[in-house]
């Protein structure tokens, strides 16, 4: 895994980028945090947020010219949020006298500051905090400059005096009534390590660097009106602070310009969609300053701009409350340092890899691609937990075994080969034969059938070794059958073929139904409405989208589109093997999808149908519209158990061989035992939760009875047996009743038991 590329990708995520108001503010006040505290009515904390970034907060908070309001995204939806009024409220209700602090030693050097206005005072304050001995020269008899112009209007005299007194109290020496001219400036430059010029006007034009505020290549720095060419209060304060940082770098003899691109006002890369935002009018004032309730109300109008498009649309990112940037940083740590923590592994294996995040992202970041590469890396390093994907891979192995896998042609050679996938036969075994007969009747050139698994579970699990083996088998089958066009019924199969088998031409089964027409025995009367839940694996396949809606229309249904549909569809919660790795996460996907509409849902993926129906949603598979005899029963049909899914696949093969080709299958799927299992409902649920098949449980019991290796509890008259099959150890508690076995409880775990 290219971790440098991963970090580069993470840096492109704009989730943590500041909103326009903060980036436009030259001192970068955290507006979201500020209004957030105010909205809660905590004016003390709101003031502290402001104080962190705004120098002389009581003064500037009362007279700031608020450039932030000019870029507020609320402007077209009720008017900009009145940050300036909220700052005044924070000063009025949130200020408390600062506690005495221990002064820092002043041993870094000596700096002269010329001009006791806003920029000069800010520069002096910042340099003092950095440990410099500062002398402030002011031509008048008092510090403050044009701050005094606001006395009695928006500022009380005592506030100005208290703030200035606090500055002097820090140890900054003030030389009042001292006029500095060009000659004296040159002298000061020789006497001090550096000089800051913040006089507003100067006797000659100065060549001031726009980022560092250095005058030429001298030890003199200039800010305020001299640098900004405007009377902005907040820009003057910002220039004083930035110049102080430059002075510090100058004295330390380090680069003045490195990593300073985002100092001062800048255009944020953050994008925030305002479509659909309800207008909320600004809160009016009953007096000169907002009351506390008025301030709280106005703060509540703030949209708290932050890019959360992918998080809000993705159940996975919502559950873990993580942005792609943070996600990728955690993956980087997992790869470089931690080498597989439980939390990180759990999160990585809880992504459905559906790709919606990329569709929602302004920057086109694909967590699907990142997660896929991460899982493959974990497999290579031996850090992939066995338990997360073991059953799905075992299920894939079964689908490619003699119990299901099969290739049969219509005649010697057929132009088409129907490939239903593994999940459709597992969920709807009764439809496979009907589909094949339809294809035989409607496809000129003939149609064969190929039963098996495309390998998607291996791909999702990061098992590229198994994936490539599977792809080679499919490719060889295609070659051996004369390179037919595949007819695919599964969206995951479509995705796999597009990526791994581009040489094989394929068409979706749904395109054929839409083009060739439907059996006419299942049309409904009356008007009914459905919403289509599109499969995420084919989110960009317009032909399939159109075909599904065409079939629904031909069947007499009206379609009402979901908010997230077609290329922006959501996952059902099965993709990426999340259903096996994190059931709770899978349930989140189901729940959030169901909540989108009150309409019945129409799907064309078997697993989508199973999970949505299991979640309590009336859901039709597209094949129900074509073949179902009882539509009400079809809408409420529940997911088959894991054991039933294996049995259904086996019965599909058996049924096709007998009915179509008149062959008696040579397979021993249902092994003959000398006992019959009785499985109560609570045990069946345990089996589903622990991914235990009836055939595995029977194997454990049979082995224990034949070998005698079991624990007997005479009090309960029960036996406890265990058996390791592949990399899973199964435990079964059972009671013998003649030729019947009552199963009392089951358990499984994916770890090795070491025998001493």
In words, what does this structure look like?
The protein has 756 residues and is of the alpha/beta class. The chain has 5 domains: 143 residues, 3-Layer(bba) Sandwich (FAD/NAD(P)-binding domain); 76 residues, no CATH class; 127 residues, Rossmann fold; 120 residues, Rossmann fold (3-Layer(aba) Sandwich), CATH 3.40.50; 74 residues, YaeB-like fold, CATH 3.30.2310. It is 45% helix and 12% strand. The protein has 34 helices and 19 strands. The strands form 4 sheets. The protein has a 5-stranded parallel β-sheet with strand order 3-2-1-4-5, with helices on both faces. It has a 5-stranded mixed β-sheet with strand order 6-8-7-9-10, sandwiched between helices. A 5-stranded mixed β-sheet has the order 15-19-18-17-16. Helix 3 packs antiparallel against helix 4 and helix 3 packs across helix 12.
Going across the biggest sheet, name each strand in turn: 3-2-1-4-5
- Rg of Cα set: 36 Å
What's the story with the biggest beta sheet? 5 strands, parallel
Average of the residue pLDDT scores? 93
Helix content: 40-55%
Low-confidence stretches: 752-756
Task: Provide a brief overview of the structure.
This protein has about 750 residues and is α/β, with parallel strands linked by helices. It is built from 34 helices and 19 strands.
């Amino acid at each position: 895994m290219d971790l440098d590329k991963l970090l580069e990708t993470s840096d492109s995520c704009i989730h943590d980028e500041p909103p326009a108001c903060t980036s436009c503010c030259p001192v970068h006040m955290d507006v979201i945090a500020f209004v957030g505290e105010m909205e809660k009515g905590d004016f003390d904390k709101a003031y502290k947020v402001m104080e962190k970034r705004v120098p002389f907060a009581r003064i500037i908070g009362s007279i700031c010219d608020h450039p932030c309001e000019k870029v507020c995204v609320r402007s077209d939806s009720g008017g900009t949020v009145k940050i300036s009024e909220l700052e005044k409220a924070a000063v009025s209700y949130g200020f408390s006298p600062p506690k005495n602090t221990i002064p820092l030693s002043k041993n870094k050097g000596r700096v002269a500051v010329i001009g006791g206005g806003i920029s000069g005072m800010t520069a002096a304050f910042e340099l003092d905090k950095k440990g410099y001995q500062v002398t402030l020269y002011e031509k008048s008899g008092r510090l403050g400059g044009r701050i005094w112009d606001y006395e009695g209007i928006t500022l009380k005299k005592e506030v100005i005096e208290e703030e200035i007194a606090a500055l002097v109290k820090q140890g900054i020496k003030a030389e009042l009534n001292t006029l500095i001219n060009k000659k004296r400036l040159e002298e000061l430059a020789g006497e001090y390590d550096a000089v800051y010029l913040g006089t507003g006007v100067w006797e000659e034009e100065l060549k001031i660097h726009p980022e560092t505020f250095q005058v030429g290549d001298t030890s003199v720095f200039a800010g305020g009106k001299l640098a900004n060419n405007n009377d902005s209060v907040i820009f003057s304060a910002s220039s004083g602070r930035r110049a102080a940082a430059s002075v510090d770098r100058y004295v330390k003899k380090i680069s003045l310009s490195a990593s300073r691109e985002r100092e001062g006002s800048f255009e944020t890369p953050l994008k925030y969609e305002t479509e659909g935002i309800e207008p909320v009018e600004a809160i009016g004032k009953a007096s000169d300053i907002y009351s506390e309730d008025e301030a709280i109300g106005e703060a509540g109008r703030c949209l708290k701009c932050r890019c959360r498009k992918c998080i809000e649309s993705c159940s996975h990112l919502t559950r873990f409350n993580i942005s792609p940037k943070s996600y990728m940083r955690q993956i980087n740590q997992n790869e470089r340092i931690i080498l597989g923590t439980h939390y990180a592994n759990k999160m990585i294996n809880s992504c459905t890899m559906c790709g919606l995040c990329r569709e929602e992202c302004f920057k086109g970041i694909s967590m699907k691609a990142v997660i896929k590469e991460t899982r493959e890396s974990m497999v290579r390093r031996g850090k992939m937990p066995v338990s997360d994907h073991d059953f799905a891979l075992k299920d894939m192995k079964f689908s490619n075994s003699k119990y299901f896998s099969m290739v049969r042609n219509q005649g010697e050679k057929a132009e088409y080969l129907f490939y239903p996938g593994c999940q459709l036969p597992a969920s709807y075994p009764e439809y496979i034969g009907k589909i094949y007969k339809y294809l035989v009747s409607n496809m000129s050139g003939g149609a064969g059938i190929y039963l098996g698994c495309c390998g998607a579970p291996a791909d999702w699990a990061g098992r590229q070794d198994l994936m490539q083996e599977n792809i080679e088998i499919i490719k060889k089958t295609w070659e051996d059958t004369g390179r037919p066009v595949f007819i695919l019924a599964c969206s995951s199969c479509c995705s796999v073929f597009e990526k791994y088998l581009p040489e094989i031409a394929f068409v979706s089964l749904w395109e054929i139904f839409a083009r060739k027409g439907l059996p006419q025995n299942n049309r409904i009367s009356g008007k009914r409405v459905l919403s289509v839940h599109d499969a995420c694996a084919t989110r960009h396949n317009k032909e399939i989208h159109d075909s599904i809606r065409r079939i629904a229309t031909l069947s007499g249904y009206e379609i009402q589109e979901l908010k997230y549909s077609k290329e922006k569809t959501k996952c059902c919660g099965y993709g990426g093997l999340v259903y096996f790795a994190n059931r709770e996460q899978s349930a989140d996907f189901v729940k959030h999808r169901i909540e989108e509409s009150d309409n019945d849902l129409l799907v064309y993926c078997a697993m989508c149908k199973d999970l949505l129906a299991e979640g309590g949603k009336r859901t039709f598979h597209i094949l129900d519209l074509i073949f179902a005899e009882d539509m009400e029963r079809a809408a409420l049909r529940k997911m088959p158990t894991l054991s039933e899914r294996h049995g259904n696949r086996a019965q599909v093969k058996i049924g096709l061989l007998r009915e179509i080709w008149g062959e008696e299958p040579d397979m021993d799927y249902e092994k003959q035992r000398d006992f019959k299992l009785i499985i109560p409902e609570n045990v069946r649920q345990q089996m589903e939760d622990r991914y235990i098949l009836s055939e595995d449980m029977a194997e454990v019991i049979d082995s224990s009875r034949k070998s005698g290796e079991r624990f007997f509890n005479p009090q309960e008259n029960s036996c406890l047996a265990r058996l390791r099959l592949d990399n899973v150890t199964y435990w079964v508690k059972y009671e013998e009743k003649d030729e019947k076995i009552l199963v009392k409880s089951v358990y499984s775990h994916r770890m090795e038991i070491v025998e001493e």
